């Protein structure tokens, strides 16, 4: 008889559950996160197993890759899309793992995307670059705030990037303030070098594939943003409609409305935060280099505010890039903005 397995994965252990084709529980046990132990537990069911569901947690790489290497068909569950019975009084890892297997048996499992293993490391390297960019910005803002607070003058981020450690010795009287400013400057310089190293390495490792080359025709999207979008999207065909892609990029509102009144919010974090960042960055550049994009931004800003206007422009660019990647056509501002 056919069987189905569900694995509720944690940082140091997992709970494995197996059911048969009639939903009868035939195995359930908590196991350490060791590939040999997991494979041994699955061995008696290998011939009958129709699939294994692994919950998409931060540490799923090793488990999914190992199971695939041993010939198992693996499904990655999307936790934010899984709907459970709200009347349940008690839920634990055991219940969750059997529920995963149950949804697979009924063919109602909301699945996540198993990103190709060969490209995963480069994508994660670009994600590390983004982390360094955010940390560099934090140190720039910290020094900028310190200068305004102590000296009463405002210095732009561009000027702060040009500061050297000896420059701050003439700016502050207190040696402690000088030390704090020097620490900011040295950290900014270190992060800037790391960012450049990662960018060079990524450009040497991978280049834009054919469906994504037309992304560079969008004002505001250069090599790094183009590579980020390509590596985060993977296969554009996995998004059936442009709305699915825009939602995945976190470019749409997450609110519930009834009778023109806001009744609550959905999961605002459901989607890809790296694509969300990429399109917001593209929007900032687009309004500088594309007059039509700037006019759209200014109209939105006049009715709302700068943050909402930037997000609206990023949604426009995300929707445009979907058709650009899918149909392999260049960017046309007239089609986008009229």
Structural account:
This protein has 14 helices and 7 strands. With 338 residues, the protein is an alpha/beta fold. The protein folds into 3 domains: 3-106, Nucleotidyltransferase, domain 5 (2-Layer Sandwich), CATH 3.30.420; 117-205; 210-337, no CATH class. The strands form 2 sheets. Strands 3-2-1-4-5 form a 5-stranded mixed beta sheet. A hairpin with a 2-residue loop joins strand 6 (255-258) and strand 7 (261-265). The model has no long low-confidence stretch (mean pLDDT 90).
The count of strands amounts to 7
- C-alpha-based Rg, rounded: 25 Å
How widely separated are the two ends?
59 Å
Helix and strand content put the structural class at alpha/beta
* Overall average residue pLDDT: 90
Shape: globular
Number of domains: 3
Low-pLDDT sequence parts? none
How many DSSP H or I helices?
14
What percent of the residues sit in helical stretches (DSSP H or I)? 55-70%
From N to C, what is the helix and strand string? EEEHEHEHHHHHHHHEEHHHH
| Strand content range | 5-15%
Most strands sheet? 5 strands, mixed
Strand order of the largest sheet: 3-2-1-4-5
How is this structure best summarized?
The protein has 338 residues and is α/β, with parallel strands linked by helices. It is built from 14 helices and seven strands.
